[in-house]
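Narrative progress, year one. The postdoctoral researcher (J.K.) led the effort to move from monomer predictions toward full complexes, under supervision of the PI. The following entry was the first complex the group processed end to end, covering 771 residues in total.
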Amino acid sequence: MASLLGRFCRKLVVPGSAHGSRMISTTACDSEAVKSLNLYSAINQALHIALETDPRSYVFGEDVGFGGVFRCTTGLAERFGKNRVFNTPLCEQGIVGFGIGLAAMGNRAVVEIQFADYIYPAFDQVKRVFPTLEFDFSTAEFLIRGFNSQIVNEAAKFRYRSGNQFNCGGLTIRAPYGAVGHGGHYHSQSPEAFFCHVPGIKVVIPRSPREAKGLLLSSIRDPNPVVFFEPKWLYRQAVEEVPEHDYMIPLSQAEVIREGNDITLVGWGAQLTVMEQACLDAEKEGISCELIDLKTLLPWDKETVEASVKKTGRLLISHEAPVTGGFGAEISATILERCFLKLEAPVSRVCGLDTPFPLVFEPFYMPTKNKILDAIKSTVNY
Amino acid sequence: MALSRLSSRSNIISRPLSAAFRRSISTDTTPITIETSLPFTAHLCDPPSRSVESSTQELLSFFRTMALMRRMEIAADSLYKAKLIRGFCHLYDGQEAVAIGMEAAITKKDAIITAYRDHCIFLGRGGSLYEVFAELMGRQDGCSRGKGGSMHFYKKDSSFYGGHGIVGAQVPLGCGIAFAQKYSKEEAVTFAMYGDGAANQGQLFEALNISALWDLPSILVCENNHYGMGTAEWRAAKSPSYYKRGDYVPGLKVDGMDAFAVKQACKFAKEHALKNGPIILEMDTYRYHGHSMSDPGSTYRTRDEISGVRQERDPIERIKKLVLSHDLATEKELKDMEKEIRKEVDDAIAKAKDCPMPEPSELFTNVYVKGFGTESFGADRKEVKAALP
């Protein structure tokens, strides 16, 4: 698994590889210094650069001072001081609201929610305002706590309802999300779909260390509030050559990471590694798969996906979140509108089941490689 | 029991005369009065007396149950390290006095709701060791059918409402249960337990306001073990006097390592809540393990601190000293009891290991009462509805 991951990540660095993957044009050219980093180190680097380049940026959240539960914020407090990198008490709603206020005053706040499962209390706040505050929410689960009042009602709508007098574009909320093998109900959730339903905020999900650093820097500097989900499973598992300098990867631009002709696969985050494996297996059976990393879910790059589906005629979407109401539904509906006559088969969604995230049943719940492979084959043979 | 004790005693001559007429452990209900180690500190109420009514039976049962709880948690530690328990495991050792003292003061009609550090509370509510270990290992005979895990233990017939993973979320729930109790005129109360980390959650204050407004019989119990995961209380709270946080709601600060102090406080709180509405209890306690099994527990506190508490304030040691000073058992008997307990725990683990995992179809049960929540994707890519029983 780790070696496949390594291959998956390294593939992006080598130009003109046999699999036809494309180099990211915005990242370093070969002469720039690169370092082998895992996901949390890449994010750490991005945070260091963000704080360095903008003296009015702050990082705070639960336990970030000592480095955070996933080590994403190590060294920040020591380097930038306790006034810019600080711990907050255990109150997601308060944290996000606080960050929104800070951003409304023109600062960049990077807020951490410890697990995305905890974001829901802050949800309301996120919806309200979401300036350029970067909240470092450690887990997407905890983000759900912030979800309830702050993010949706405060962050997302501040600019709109004040007629552009105020905004919280400087707000970025970071949260680890996703299954990790043993997380159970409240340390494995993928709440991205809830946030994608909120106009006014952006939702960004990186797939690898190199992507994460560039996307996080873009998110922090984007003049809109951003919810940045980090696949916690990849924090240590994914290792990649990451350029050491300051670079940004543009938001709302999807990337075709593997070219093919028979079917388009769309995913984001950690799920891409699983889809990659399915693509390799499908290739052995003569099915050529095109794999797209959406990167930004809201607003998402419809054009790239549309162009790909017009070429292949088939679409498969895969995500860990439950299938009903998941973001795959939005992609499916949009592509159907745009490419109806070009489709050879119904859009397939291979996602988590419609149950609470289970404990012992996690392997059954997850959209695994075999489920994706089965779906690829039945779509192609429709 | 008495006979074996008489025969095993080696220094019967040196023992005081009264001890020779000591009755057997299991049936003795001689009342004993025990002084709590510290006085209670009160906020907006008169603290209860330091003299606690107890009996020899209760004293010994405290020892036994707390030793059982301690052994259970340590066994859970080893099981986790052996990867038989996966996911999260938050251990309660050090805090046993809170669970046991509370149980002694209340009935099974009174409700308890707590956060994720719930193994011992479950045991106190009448749960069996087998159910605990089966649930921890995700087996079908667990108290939540293997679907909840360490953080989600429940026991409906003893009014134990769990077992909650999201910090602080259980407190408004507890106040809701109290409302239901008041509504049904049950003369019962609800103990909503939470930690010092959760004490900073906004929803607690919302729940307190509502409880005070409507005079609900809810008792908010802050198990202050001084660390919210790795954050010390003084770094998270402007006012670490959690018993005063209720402002207009009375509060009591209790030495949470003294089971009798806890019992007295809970008895007092129950009487208060039934007459006057909510009250906050702050239990000054300590956990020896880290926050969970992934936390060594020593990066944010010194080993000296941990061993200091273990030496000075360990709840089981305190009870043991009381048992010995009241001559209710000898050292050897207590050691034998501990051996028995160890065996009991080992047997329960062995039985739990043999228990099968839940059926795969259980993945879809109890999402709704009936019907939905069962879609999955088969090879034909069409949605498949699993047949629900």
